[in-house]
Structure formats: structure tokens, C-alpha cells
Amino acid sequence: MRQASSWLGLERDIETGPLVPKDLDASAMNSTESLSRTERFRWFVMLLSVSFLFFFLAFVFLSVVLVLPGKFAFAFTCGSVCFMSAFAVAQGPSEWFASVMKRDKLPFTAAYFGSIAGTLYATLVVRNYVAVVFFAGVQLVALSYYGAANMPYGRAGLKVVQTMVSTLCSGCFKTCKGCFSILWG
């Protein structure tokens, strides 16, 4: 049941209460789904810019992470949430939520949101440096995966980087193993 409420062309829904334009029904007014493509792009750019600002602040606090882990973790987590929110606004919240809940992305989603909760818990409650660095690292990996997976050829690039890192790490471990066997062998 709708009732006209003002000269602006808005109507108030008696059951739910919000003002909505007359030409849209209530099911179409779902958060950012009602935004135009241009408005979504503006919000996307704005949230992405804010996330880069927070990431820059986290990078600044990286040098003092042993002294002030809370500042680093809070800035990094805020940047991470803004980064993810930018993509949610660009795709539309319901489409974004459906995409991160797909079977192949569910482990990433759990790791990402778990790492955010873990980072905040380690920073605000436990105040453990190792836990803060660990959870922030997991958050960085999950965020990198998400960013690469949503860019053109991002997954292929991610596989190349993963291969390079695993090759580098295995070579490093073989070298360390050889050094230790010489020293204690």
C-alpha cells in the first residue's frame, strides 16, 4: 500500500516506510543496485582511492609494526574492507555476494573474512605481534588473490607468480638444507 508523500515525486510505503521514486517498485530499490552505471563507477573509484590511502598508511606503519602493530593492522584492514567494498559497489551487492559465495571462491571468502576477524582480534584483544603479522599476511594473500582473479588474465598471472614464488622458495630451502648439512654434516 503506497501513499504519496511529497511534491518530489516520492512515495512512502506504509509497511516498510522508506521513500522511493514512483517509477521504481520496492524490489528494484536494493541498496546500490538502483545506482546508475556512472554512479557505481564513481563509488568504485572513491572506495578504491580510500583503500589505497589506507594501504599507504599501513605501508607507513609497516616500519614500526613491532612497536605499533595495532596501527598497521587497523589501517591494513580498513584498506582491505574498502577495496572489497569497491568491487561490491561496482558489481552490485547481491551479485558480488553471490560471486564470492560460489563453490570455487568459498575457501578464499572464508580465508579473507577469517583473516580480517583474526587481524582485529590479534590487534585489539590478544595484542600479539606474531599473530598480527600472520593474520595480516593471510589477509594480504587473500586480497591479492581476489584482485588478480577479477582482472583480465589475472588468474593466469597469479599462477605465474605462484610458480615463481614456489620455485624461489624451494631453491632457497635447498640452499639452506645444503648449508646446514655442511655445517653439521
Summarize the main sheet. 3 strands, antiparallel
Helix content: over 70%
Strand content: 5-15%
Number of strands: 3
Shape: globular
Structural class: mainly alpha
Extract low-pLDDT stretches: 1-14, 16-29
Number of helices: 6
Strand order of the largest sheet: 1-2-3
Tally of domains: 3
Order of helices and strands: EEEHHHHHH
Residue-averaged pLDDT, rounded? 76
C-alpha termini separation: 84 Å
Radius of gyration: 23 Å
What would a concise description of this structure say?
This protein is mainly alpha-helical. It has 6 helices and 3 strands; from the N terminus they run βββαααααα. It folds into 3 domains: 1-34, no CATH class; 36-150; 159-185.
Break the fold down into its secondary structure elements and pairings.
Layout: E1 2-4, E2 10-13, E3 19-21, H1 37-62, H2 69-91, H3 93-100, H4 106-126, H5 129-149, H6 154-184
Antiparallel strand pairs: 1-2, 2-3
Structure description:
This protein has 185 residues and is mainly alpha-helical. It is built from six helices and three strands. It has a three-stranded antiparallel beta sheet with strand order 1-2-3, with no helix packed on it. Strand 1 and strand 2 (10-13) form a beta hairpin. Helix 1 (37-62) packs antiparallel against helix 2 (69-91). The longest helix has 31 residues, at 154-184. The model is unreliable at 1-14 and 16-29 (pLDDT under 50).
Notable traits:
globular; 3 domains; mainly alpha; 185 residues; three-stranded antiparallel β-sheet; single chain; 6 helices
